[in-house]
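Renewal narrative, Specific Aim 1. Our central claim is that a sequence can be written position by position from structural information alone. The example that follows is taken directly from our test logs and has not been curated for this report. It begins with the structure tokens describing the chain, in the order in which they were read.
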């Protein structure tokens, strides 16, 4: 059983990697349209908020896992982080092609299905994790728009030895 679960995770990781390569290839021609530092910052922030939310909920709820290994089943942290990333991809690349966000959501959904099939979560753990991740991305992108604006006010550059972050007021 453990070998099958590891194979599923490897296949899922490969699928997610192919989705990201496809997304990158799709937007190479439109690189000027994207604020990559804003996208990266919002994605990392979304995943961080999802991680914090799932950690707090796991401590409060104490739901037993289907395999009875511990009481940290609700909500699924994997689903929360995957859907936070998928929603960030959706918000940044939907104008380029609908297939990029579809690939992100498909990968996140496949991860959630894998968590249920491998007996690590109940379906409602995954559904709650997906909602938490989606909501985390919505919150962080809204806050980013509110405080930083939607323009290119933030820039990040590197010289190889230094990392420069500039915010234009």
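The sequence written for that structure reads:
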């Amino acid at each position: 059983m453990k070998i099958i679960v590891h194979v599923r995770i490897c296949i899922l990781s490969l699928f997610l990697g192919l989705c990201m390569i496809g997304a990158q290839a799709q937007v190479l021609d439109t690189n000027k349209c994207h604020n990559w530092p804003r996208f990266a910052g919002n994605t990392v922030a979304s995943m961080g908020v999802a991680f914090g939310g799932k950690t707090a909920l796991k401590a409060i709820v104490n739901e037993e896992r289907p395999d009875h290994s511990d009481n940290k089943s609700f909500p699924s942290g994997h689903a929360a982080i995957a859907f936070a990333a998928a929603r960030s991809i959706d918000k940044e690349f939907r104008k380029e092609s609908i297939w990029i966000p579809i690939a992100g959501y498909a990968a996140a959904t496949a991860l959630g299905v894998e968590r249920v099939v491998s007996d690590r979560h109940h379906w409602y753990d995954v559904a709650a994790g997906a909602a938490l991740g989606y909501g985390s991305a919505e919150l962080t992108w809204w806050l980013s728009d509110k405080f930083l604006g939607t323009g290119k006010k933030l820039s990040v550059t590197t010289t190889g030895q230094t990392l420069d972050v500039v915010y234009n007021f």
